[in-house]
Amino acid sequence: MPAPPRKLTALLSALTLAIGGLAIAGPLPGASAAGENLALNRPVQVSSSESAAFGGAAAVDGSATSRWASQEGHDPEWISVDLGSAQPLRRAVLRWEAAYASAYRIEVSADGTNWTSAYSTTTGDGGTDDVSVTATGRYVRVYGTKRATSYGYSLWELELYGDGGTTPPPTTPPPTTGGAVPFGSHLKPYVTGTLKPSGAQSTVDQAVVRYYEQWRNAFVKQNCGNGWYEVISPDADHPYVAEGQGYGLVVSATMAGADPNAKKIFDGILKFVLAHKSVNDPDLAAAEQDTSCKSVNGSDSATDGDLDIAYGLLLADRQWGSSGTYDYRALALKRINAIKRSEVDGSTHMLLAGDWASGADRQISRSSDWMIGHMRAFRQATGDTTWDTIREKHQNVIAALQRDYAGSTGLLPDFVQNTTTTPRPAQGKVLEDPNDGAYWWNACRDPWRLGVDAATTGDARSTAAVRKLSGWIRQKTGGDPAKIKNGYTLGGSQLSGDHDAAFWAPFAVAALSDPGAQAWLDALWAKLAAGQVNGGDYYSASIHLQTMIAVSGNFWRP
């Protein structure tokens, strides 16, 4: 969440950084009234925007919920405002999102070409910068020269005041109890053309909050003392598993703004995770704990848990910054590097099942670990191009499996083997179950994991993969979600007559990128929104919740 209001000088510095090089239009023509924000709804130019949803106009629209964001990872960047005529300036207010400038200038110009510095700082600390300036100009530019984070520059609002502008500005800053991307804000919209459930967005969001509160009350506990929070897994082999803690971190960071205790819960789960390290790589998590909260069963890692833990840390850094009790970003980078070191085969670039894999087990990989969006986030956070190679490898394998083994269904197997040569579906039991080579209790998550990447990036390969899955399941069930069953062969033959959310819910995320699936999506959403948490079924309930977050448009990439 945005930092508390800062001194005026810091605000101006941040504005300069975010807007550097951009002329900021002054007040509406004519003399300004006392306290009038001269920048309000004036024409703007920017050096860049992260996307069309974060254009420069959002920084001068008087709204506390819209913002300008520059492209990520680049200096310098700027935003400028055209005030319409030369105006005397006495005050500037910059309301930073979590991505703020540590160094920037505020500049003025008579022609939008030749600039004079009116203020500069190299110690910007984010939050709200409220600074005094003495300058005259038609154009005002905030020119950012050094980012405080790995992201870009982002301003909720840029306000400019002239003579008499000493009254408090009218804009109310975003709430400080939520985060930089509070739940329900939809500050990171999905790609154009993505479907969404019919009906009011507020109703859709409220359904997610209702189910989340049930899930939290059922599974987020403080059973182990030490100031820890834990996600319990009564239906798993052990009462606490790294997969569950990963889910808890991602969910709590995402629900900030809807749950005032989200950060407290996040930090409590993180404290539990950090106290339970893998014996093989201490920068990874031990996968299982017993009723005494002690690591058991080898105390080694499970890759899916570590992937979500790292992703959750990146979300937390984006939501709350990393200057509090925990340096979320540093912890994320450490875990991402450990995943590459100990849970990725360096020769094949395929994910392993855990840091324990050796010998023949290094030729096995689990499709539900192939979280393409996580790999993108890791590449962005670290700057390590190896993550591009890892992502592309898994996308190639997904395409080959769908082509060669599931041409009519698009279904992926729980596990593949022979990763050192040509990956193929597991033959019988290789790690967990005789159905390891089928679409079973691991692969059931694939439409969700691939679906969020398609919705947030529009990636052609992820989109093609989920459209194949969505088209097949719609045809298989005749458009009736109640007919989705637990498990299929890759050819589409039913393996069970049961009907758990772990299997039907993820298809709703795939439907977001299926242009002909609006009625199907609405039917799945109605089923999701009507759901009630079963306190004995952590696995299905956790998938149910996270698919609701995605389908409602509240999933986002850090």
Automatic annotation (TrEMBL):
GO BP annotations listed: carbohydrate metabolic process
Keyword Transport among UniProt keywords: no
Pfam family, one: Glyco_hydro_8
Span of domain F5/8 type C: 26-163
InterPro entries: 6-hairpin_glycosidase_sf, 6hp_glycosidase-like_sf, FA58C, Galactose-bd-like_sf, Glyco_hydro_8
Keyword tags: Glycosidase, Hydrolase
GO MF terms, alphabetically ordered: hydrolase activity, hydrolyzing O-glycosyl compounds
Classification via PROSITE patterns: FA58C_3 (PS50022)
Signal peptide: none
Protein family membership: Belongs to the glycosyl hydrolase 8 (cellulase D) family.
Protein's recorded name: F5/8 type C domain-containing protein
Native organism: Actinomadura macrotermitis
Lineage of source species: Bacteria, Bacillati, Actinomycetota, Actinomycetes, Streptosporangiales
